[in-house]
Design goal:
Length: 297
């Protein structure tokens, strides 16, 4: 093979990438704020952005993990590369997945990448009434304010590590609720958990990832498992292994809110560590399964 041919072969990956970027740049941009699920007791609307899809489907389930679909509905093409479906009636508590057809082939089902609730291991998203997950006083909850950002004293912590050891004296070990408990003491009588953090005089805690990540099997929480959480699955869903019931998507939201409110009630702000440039596995990503080759290129 002569030199020009070798040079051309070496350039093919860069040419393909440039063509993919050019194609992606031509996709319509959706400017609305209602992607995913929009719930009301009267009806639920589902909208996805999938500009390369020919068809799109919604599957409804009773369970977040097992069982066949109760119903399957086809979404209709709508504006700016989106597909839309509105179902009448109260769907609160139902689990759902999306599925698209690209190039005449149906891709694997996927949870909603814009979901705010999901069942165990994030396999299926959940239709949820967020108002029902509010702890008492949530409507008036506000974080602390500081005169200047430079006044912040930030304590970084891994939620599970804070309370998982028996010596912490915390009942909800390794859980969101572990950070709400007061009066906890070590065997030596020293404050632990929330009392310890308050004693330090910090203004904020920086939580290492508490969104839904993939490396912990939420169905086997009795096993000794640990991860930092930098392998996101569903960015807008709280991690289920930190809740008392990962199978019901509402529980993790409610307990996360209880934790935030407890910290706010004691003058402590909450900072969430979110890594949008990380994923657990490309082929299993909801973004890849809705618009293959667009988000990962």
């Amino acid at each position: 093979m002569d030199l020009p041919a070798l040079l051309l072969l070496s350039l093919l990956p860069a040419i393909a990438l440039a063509q993919a970027r050019s194609t992606a740049a031509s996709f319509p941009t959706y400017e609305g704020n209602d992607l995913g699920m929009t719930y009301s007791p009267e009806r639920t609307r589902f909208r996805i952005w999938a500009p390369t899809a020919e068809r799109a489907f919604l599957h409804l389930y009773e369970s977040g993990l097992s069982g066949k679909a109760l119903q399957t509905h086809e979404l209709q093409p709508d504006t700016q590369g989106t597909f839309l479906l509105t179902l009448e009636g109260d769907l609160e508590g139902r689990y759902y997945t999306f599925q698209v057809e690209v190039g005449g082939r149906r891709l694997p089902e996927t949870p909603d990448p814009w979901a705010v609730a999901a069942g165990a291991n994030g396999r299926r998203a959940m239709v949820v009434d967020l108002r029902k997950t509010d702890p008492p006083g949530w409507e008036n909850d506000r974080g602390p304010t500081l005169p200047h950002p430079t006044d912040a004293v930030i304590y970084e912590l891994h939620l599970r590590d804070l309370s998982t050891h028996p010596s912490a004296g915390i009942r909800h070990r390794g859980k969101y609720l572990g950070l709400t408990e007061r009066g906890t003491r070590s065997p030596e009588g020293l404050p632990t958990g929330l009392d310890h953090i308050r004693q330090l005089g910090v203004t904020h805690i920086h939580l290492l990832p508490v969104f839904d990540f993939a490396s912990i099997d939420e169905t086997k929480l009795d096993a000794a498992t640990f991860n930092w959480g930098y392998d996101p699955h569903l960015f807008n869903v709280p991690e289920g292994s930190y809740s008392t019931d990962p199978f019901d998507g509402r529980v993790r939201i409610r307990e996360f809110k209880q934790m935030v409110k407890a910290l706010h009630d004691h003058g402590i702000g909450v900072i969430m560590d979110v890594v949008y440039n990380h994923v657990h596995a490309i082929d299993e990503s909801p973004f890849q399964r809705l618009v293959p080759g667009y988000f990962f290129r």
